[in-house]
Amino acid sequence: MTEQYTEAGRKFAQLVEVMAKLRAPGGCPWDRKQTFDTIKSYLLEEAYEVMDAIDRRDWASLEEELGDLLLQPVFFAEMAREQGLFSIADSIDAINEKLVRRHPHVFGDAHAETPEDVKVRWDEIKKQEKGPVPETSVLDAVPRNLPALMEAEKIGHKAAATGFEWPNIEGVLEKLQEEAAELARARDSGDREHIEHELGDLLFTVVNLARFLKVDPEQALRKTSSRFRRRFSYVETERRDGDSLERLEELWQEAKERESAAANIGE
Known about the structure:
- This protein is mainly alpha-helical.
- It is built from twelve helices and no strands.
């Protein structure tokens, strides 16, 4: 195991050196031109490609995509080093120290028997590290540029931690019905801004329902989209010109049945 870590460390150092050469005078014009702002979108793109490979259980692609994702922090850190801000070694030191500090049940004398115990202890240590904070909204800790589903989920968690929470899941389901009815009324009004408003409220409630059910809404929706892709591909393959909507629905149901049979599970 030690030899494996040593080899990984050597190859990581090589990656850092390659990135530095690409950014150095005489290096790659494209890499040299990049800034924090131009590169940041690639970080999100690579993260989603990693998630896609995992969802597809495509381990060969995952191997490659993890390398692409690993390049992003190295790229950012190299630009920071050039400006005298910090280096990739500083970032590694920071995460190593944080992991040890926030896992006293592994590296110290504390005890944590369950994942929930670990989460509680992690949050306690995090608060201690940050110290007293100004009287601002707890929601300020949630980045505003997260994907909308993720932002809504984190906002829900933060608000719930203050006691602003439904007492049970039945309350969430009632809220869902209420929001659906309000959306229907907005649709009848024809007011596009009102419709958008109510649709947003409905989606936000669905995200809170996912939180109650301990389901990641982002992953749930991604998996649904993946299923839709597969089933729609079957419909595209089997359909004929002039097929009625009823025939397309039959093909859709066939696709679902084929999936269920193959997986030996129900819907």
